[in-house]
Amino acid sequence: MPTLADRNLTDAPQEERQVALPAVARPFLGLIDAVIVEDPVAFPFAGSVGRKAAQAAWVWVVRDLCADLLEHVETMAAADLQALLPQILTHMQEGLRQADDFETGRRLRAQLGSDEARERLPIVIHALRCRTLLGKAQAFGKAANTIADDAALGVALQSMPLRDVPVASLLLHAAMGQISNPTRVVTSVLRVAGGSTEAHIQRSGFSPLIDAILAHAQNQLPALHPLGPFADIDLTCRALDRFHRLARALTGYVEFSRGSQWTGVLAAVTKQVSDRIEPRLKDVVADMNQSLRKARDGVDRLDHDRLLAALNGVYLLATIRECRDSLALNALFDQAWSQSGQALELHLNRNLELLRANPADKLVGTRLDAGIKMAEIRFNPDYAETLRRARLTAERRN
């Protein structure tokens, strides 16, 4: 995940940096969080803005544009900022207008810290102007989850301001973040559009919806990056499942044109997701072998890090199995799935034999408990319950 230190203030004097630093903790105090996506953003869309670009715009406002209005921004609440936004937006719009001049434009890019932040500044301004609508769009997304009839959902989606593409892009992105089943939204849109091709979608005005789905799919990438035994595996699995739902909503129902922009973006994001998962997939069997095997020589001890990594790997493996249709990992997954099952059965049998020989061995008991938990995930709960009964029998027999 991006850190709060990801900001470009190197050109600011030291005293200005001290003023700006507390203010960038949350761009615009959360008023446009609904359309902020995490960096890196390989494919920018009109309905969202990267966190670094939003932070750069916020620092620019606090430090260079409205220092007098935002003198006490560290203690300011979102409602206080809301009251000041008309004045702030006037300053922002004027600053952007003056940037048409070459020298002023060069100075603005230096203040923002990057060309990308300068390019996304109009979207930040537009999102601030639509800030009240963003909350309504999120409420719409939550309400859409409760609409059982696809035809009614299609009618509800048509209430979006589709003719105003910039506004529709922001609102559909905000709404999509709350929608749990993107497939129902896509199928409802295709029914309204009268067909499933890109041309049908574009003519119906729902192109921003496809952009929003792709933007949210891309936004799952940061959660897939952390590796190691202490990575948040629940967050990773949720992000992978969310990516699968978003990708399947498109690949399963939309007829993309060969070589189109949407096709290229989806293929590239799918590759990025697969590339981030692949190294972890290769380690599952190795972690399992090293954590569940008793030391061949020397003093036996538990490798808690490896044990946790192996358990996390099995969770990830089970999630990939559910999401494999949206990933480019078929051959590697099949190999890891097969080998993990064989290795797990082998270690479970060996640890059961060791426990029967020495029921007081706590290290073997811990490894066996961990292996049974892995078997519950990798195989099924019934098999795990059989193993638990075998473990109790081995202890009672001795």
Describe the overall structure.
The protein has 398 residues and is mainly α. The protein is 68% helix and 1% strand. It contains 18 helices and 2 strands. The protein has helices at 14-20, 51-65, 78-98, 102-112, 115-129, 131-144, 150-157, 165-176, 182-193, 198-204, 207-218, 221-224, 233-251, 261-292, 304-323, 330-357, 362-378, 381-397; strands spanning 36-37, 49-50. It has a two-stranded parallel sheet. α2 (51-65) crosses α5 (115-129) and α17 (362-378) packs antiparallel against α18 (381-397). Residues 1-24 have low confidence and may be disordered.
Please list the strands of the largest sheet in the order they lie side by side.
Answer: 1-2
Distance between the termini: 51 Å
Helix content: 55-70%
The fraction of residues assigned to DSSP E strands is under 5%
What is the radius of gyration computed over CA atoms, rounded to a whole number of angstroms? 26 Å
What is the helix/strand order? HEEHHHHHHHHHHHHHHHHH
Oligomer: single chain
* pLDDT < 50 runs, ≥5 residues: 1-24
Q: What is the overall shape?
A: elongated
* Biggest beta-sheet profile: 2 strands, parallel
Please describe the structure with a list of short key phrases separated by commas or semicolons.
single chain; 398 residues; mainly alpha; two-stranded parallel sheet; 18 helices; disordered N terminus
Give a quick precis of the structure.
The protein is an all-alpha fold. It has helices at 14-20, 51-65, 78-98, 102-112, 115-129, 131-144, 150-157, 165-176, 182-193, 198-204, 207-218, 221-224, 233-251, 261-292, 304-323, 330-357, 362-378, 381-397; strands spanning 36-37, 49-50.
